[in-house]
Fold this sequence. Notes:
Elements (H helix, E strand, L loop, with lengths): L7 H8 L1 H25 L6 H19 L3 H26 L8 H34 L1
Helix pairs in contact: 2-3, 2-5, 4-5
Amino acid sequence: MSTLASNPRISKMIHSISEIWFLLILAVPTIFDAIFEIGSKGKWTIPFTLLSIAIILISILIKQLIQKTAWISLVLGVVLCFFSLFFVAAALSEYDEFPLGTEPNALSLLAFGTIVGGISFVLAIKMSFQGAYKLYTD
Length: 138
């Protein structure tokens, strides 16, 4: 009996969902911001350091999709876990800036910030556990 989950490509994609998530979170805004900056101002004004860090992280995540390395998964998972916690804390801090807290923008900020930050946190923990498991079982 063949199921969709037994397909090797689907199974590999399910195991790589952390890398895919963070790749989308990093690559899509970086590319769209670059297109917008060049299109609207006619020049590149994105800070070079920020762009360099994004490109390095994107290349590491693409490398992890092709061939997973245990220690890179562990370190990247821990780093992205802290970034995810920082993102949730920043969203909660911005939510406190609203006087009532029941405005539609405040609620959408709270919902978006906690959902994206929470998913990122869970997937970063998953990535680090996968790296630790692979590191200590090999």
